[in-house]
Amino acid sequence: MTDELEEIRREKLNELRGRDESDSTDESESGNLSDPVSIDGKAELSDITTDHDVVLVDFYADWCGPCQMLEPVVETVAAETAATVAKIDVDANQELAAEYGVRGVPTLLLFADGEPVERLVGMQDEAQLRSVIAEYA
């Protein structure tokens, strides 16, 4: 029984390694950002909103419970939609948060063609985010 379990573990590990390698190859070839990008400052935000057509910006705080609940949704949206997803820690970027009128977290801003076009405050479900992104993608 122990030998069988070890064999299954080895097979699964090899399968996961192979999948991980093919995923990283696909990403580097396409140049698509499938993971959220951390933004630290106005210049970085400007660069990302200029370089990409549709950008969903997640203003969050590490101590925020709803932000933590929203994180897997944001990661899924980053991986499965045409939008580039950026994350901004409001504690580390208070001036940037103030500039965009972020008064509570989580706040999501959608940028299209470099301009903010939508604002979503509070916990959002995946379908809502996909719908908003689809309007501008």
From TrEMBL:
Q: Where is the signal peptide?
A: none
- Ranges for the region named Disordered are 1-40
User: Boundaries of each Thioredoxin domain copy?
Assistant: 15-137
Q: Which Pfam families match?
A: Thioredoxin (PF00085)
What keywords were assigned to this record?
A: Disulfide bond, Electron transport, Redox-active center, Transport
UniProt GO cellular component terms: cytoplasm
InterPro entries attached to this UniProt entry: Thioredoxin, Thioredoxin-like_sf, Thioredoxin_CS, Thioredoxin_domain
> Where would one find coiled-coil regions in this protein?
none
Molecular function via GO: protein-disulfide reductase activity
Where composition is biased (Basic and acidic residues), the residues are 7-22
The record's annotation in CDD domains points to: TRX_family
Entries under PANTHER family matching the protein:
GEO12009P1
What is the protein name given in its UniProt record? Thiol reductase thioredoxin
